[in-house]
Design a protein that fits this description.
Helix content: 40-55%
Structural class: mainly alpha
Distance between the termini: 37 Å
CATH superfamily of the largest domain: HUPs
Strand order of the largest sheet: 1-2-3
Radius of gyration: 23 Å
Shape: globular
Number of helices: 14
CATH class of the largest domain: Alpha Beta
Number of strands: 5
Bound molecules: tryptophan
Length: 359
């Protein structure tokens, strides 16, 4: 497959795909992350010949998380999770952003091709400002660091460094991809067409899971079902998952009362794991008045049948961080074969190069 590195191309017009996506290592992966990001990303790679770059965006992680232990531990947990769930590090270039020093270097260069006004319009920054302006006597930029403000530039560097054509992201990230296109366009026009304009890929079919309390499953609501359990040696990951599922809120309908599956978080999560035939069967069981306890047990069995085979690999990687580190170093080496060249071309394009050849 050929990738264009010297000429800028619009990715939407390119046939060969180079897929790239970043994962922020801040927190413990939950079922919503699995269904919404991990499973679809791994499956889409398994079923195609596309080139793929997946990385842990730890320099993005430190923007909003000042706890070194959390950054360190979640990098380990998230790397182990993706590999345990089937990411093949031979097939995918899988690396840690901070192991590729060319990325922050490129980010600086791109900062100089990025209008400040473009960043003023970023949703995440504007939302933080809005919260401040609602309060009396608070500076609009209070608590906002330059990392948050410039977040889209680092993200542009992540993407443009590898001339990614397709970037799978959640809907909240689409604006960042548009900004990367904008920054690439400015650079290409001003200097040399070095950067491919990437396209965001948003999967419309991906279910958004409801959490334990009926709201959207999200780390910030504390209502999640952890994928491999919280690291807690006293209770097995399987028991932790069972316990969490038993806590999902339901209405107070009694066993034998017919129930509306479309009004039930249990059924919604079940749908994300079951085959079409199993979904039809479960609908019938709701209509026939399955008790909530039994519906929860059925949900646990379904999820567990998919996750249980991954647990041994997960536990082994968590117990042996050396293996994980080796995998990440191999990925960084593969990534740097591209990034060294791309940064070199970029520096030359802007006029930064040796004054003379030294013997
Ligand atoms: N900003 C993304 C998120 O919060 C993570 C990310 C960082 C990313 N760099 C990226 C995603 C590059 C895609 C491409 O989810």
């Amino acid at each position: 497959m050929s990738t264009q590195t010297d000429t800028a191309v619009d990715s939407s017009k390119q046939e060969s795909k180079r897929i790239l996506t970043g994962i922020k290592p801040t927190g413990i992966p939950h079922l919503g992350n699995y269904v919404g990001a991990i499973r679809p990303a791994i499956q889409s790679i398994q079923n195609s010949d596309d080139e793929a770059f997946f990385f842990l965006a730890d320099y993005h992680g430190i923007i909003g998380c000042y706890d070194p232990a959390v950054i360190h531990e979640s990098t380990k947990i998230i790397a182990a999770t993706w590999i345990a769930c089937g990411l093949d590090p031979e097939r995918v270039t899988f690396y840690r952003q901070s192991d590729v020093p060319e990325i922050p270097e490129l980010a600086w260069i791109l900062n100089c091709s990025c209008a400040k006004g473009l960043m003023n319009r970023a949703h995440a920054y504007k939302a933080a400002v809005d919260i401040n302006t609602e309060k009396a006597d608070v500076d609009p930029d209070q608590g906002i660091n330059m990392g948050l403000f410039g977040y889209p530039v680092l993200m542009a560097a992540d993407i443009l460094m590898f001339n990614a054509t397709h970037v799978p992201v959640g809907r909240d990230q689409v604006q960042h991809i548009e900004m990367a296109r904008d920054i690439a366009g400015t650079f290409n026009h001003r200097y040399k067409p070095l950067f491919t304009l990437p396209s965001a890929v948003v999967d419309e079919d991906i279910p958004l899971l409801t959490g334990l309390d009926g709201r959207k499953m999200s780390k910030s609501y504390g209502n999640t079902i952890p994928l491999f359990g919280d690291p807690n040696p006293q209770v097995s990951p399987e028991k932790q998952m069972h316990k969490a599922i038993m806590k999902i809120v339901t209405n107070s309908q009694l066993p034998a009362e017919p129930k509306d599956p479309d009004d039930s978080a249990l059924f919604e999560i079940y749908k994300a794991f079951a085959t079409p035939a199993e979904i039809i069967d479960m609908r019938d069981q709701y209509a026939a008045g399955i008790g909530w306890g039994d519906a929860k047990q059925a949900l646990f069995d379904k999820i567990n049948s998919e996750i249980a085979p991954f647990r041994a690999r997960y536990e082994a990687l968590m117990a042996n961080p050396k293996e994980l580190e080796e995998i990440l170093q191999m990925g960084a080496e593969k990534a740097r074969r591209h990034s060294r060249k791309q940064l070199d071309k970029t520096r030359r394009a802007i006029g930064i190069r040796p004054l003379a050849k030294l013997k």
